[in-house]
């Protein structure tokens, strides 16, 4: 078949899915499994399939299509960023394609080398790569969200991770806690580094020396939150407070507390970073550092579309927008003195 003969039906037939499923992938809808989405995108690339609306727009060198590239789509944080991006994109007449890299640098590279990436007008990216050179090679207008790499050459939308962690830890200190643990993940990006240093600074300002045995560092996963919380809570001298440095780690900590038949806000004080469903519905509700997740997607999409339209003109250097956070105090921190 020549490129002109290839239709969406051909893609659907080769992928053994319905035309509607291919259409959902092309339009960035979320009712498609990650495995199916990847299979369809691979076939699209192999067949060099160009949707008719895209083909027409390519003559004008404009597709009215954006890509949102995220490490995974199970984490509510990423889906909120996607939601904010899609909202603005729809309002401005852009289609949105969502790509999950599974937190894998190779899969991220494959997207940027693919036919698909070359035929979007711009990209909202929560990256996996740790090297600035990778980002500098991206020629499409791109906005980095949450994870920012200095010297990347791209604008970014971030939150004040340092302040959020500082305020959470200070709340523990103000309530008389001294044995304050932190469970976090890798410090490969600004978010992990800033949260750790915010925790550390609040401890030092409170006259406390951070104890290495109360710093548990693994992946940013619920399983690590659970495993490390079990270790901490069953130690000879357990902490009186735990700062869970992201939403899924916090879920793991809540599960561990429950499995040990302990009570949050009594046996152990807990603060999470970002909302999660368990933190909202356990009693007492867990105090969290709330961040404007959907707004991050909104801001990124607005900045990206301005770039695509050529507004503003050349900037002297990349711009970073840092959104504020708020410590939402509920009942999960016990006052010791």
Secondary structure layout plus pairing:
Blueprint: H1 8-15, H2 19-26, H3 34-47, H4 52-59, E1 65-70, H5 76-91, E2 95-100, H6 105-113, H7 115-118, E3 122-125, H8 132-136, E4 142-145, E5 155-159, H9 161-174, E6 180-184, H10 190-205, E7 215-217, H11 222-233, E8 241-244, H12 247-259, E9 269-273, H13 277-281, E10 287-290, H14 293-308, E11 320-323, E12 326-328
Parallel strand pairs: 1-2, 1-3, 3-4, 4-5, 5-11, 6-7, 6-8, 8-9, 9-10
Antiparallel strand pairs: 10-12
Helix pairs in contact: 1-2, 1-3, 5-14, 9-10, 11-12
Strand-pairing-aware structural class? alpha/beta
Strands of the biggest beta sheet: in what spatial order?
2-1-3-4-5-11
Please estimate the helix content.
40-55%
Shape descriptor reads: elongated
Largest sheet descriptor: 6 strands, parallel
In round numbers, the mean pLDDT is 88
Beta fraction: 15-25%
Low-confidence stretches: 55-60
Discrete helix count: 14
Radius of gyration (CA) equals 22 Å
For the secondary structure, the number of strands is 12
Q: What distance lies between the first and last C-alpha atoms, to the nearest angstrom?
A: 76 Å
Order of helices and strands: HHHHEHEHHEHEEHEHEHEHEHEHEE
